[in-house]
Amino acid sequence: LDLTHPVEDGIFDSGNFEQFLKEKVKVNGKTGNLGNTVHIERLKNKITVTSEKQFSKR
């Protein structure tokens, strides 16, 4: 996710969004259970979500 423009405009905080994703993404029906299946990384204003398992459609 490229969040450069919203962050530069001051309407979005990429650090808070990264933390939100880490807390709210569900793996095997449980939040905060990323383990080795899902990796969330932030590099400045870009967030990368990598999954070794298929995400649900919701």
Automatic annotation (TrEMBL):
One GO process term, biological-process aspect: cytoplasmic translation
Taxonomy of the source species: Eukaryota, Metazoa, Chordata, Craniata, Vertebrata
Segments crossing the lipid bilayer: none
Gene Ontology CC terms, in alphabetical order: ribonucleoprotein complex; ribosome
Record's keyword annotation contains Ribonucleoprotein: yes
Similarity comment text for this entry: Belongs to the eukaryotic ribosomal protein eL22 family.
Protein name listed in UniProt: 60S ribosomal protein L22-like 1
Pfam family of the protein (one): Ribosomal_L22e
Keyword line: Ribonucleoprotein, Ribosomal protein
Domain of life: Eukaryota
One of the record's GO molecular function terms: RNA binding
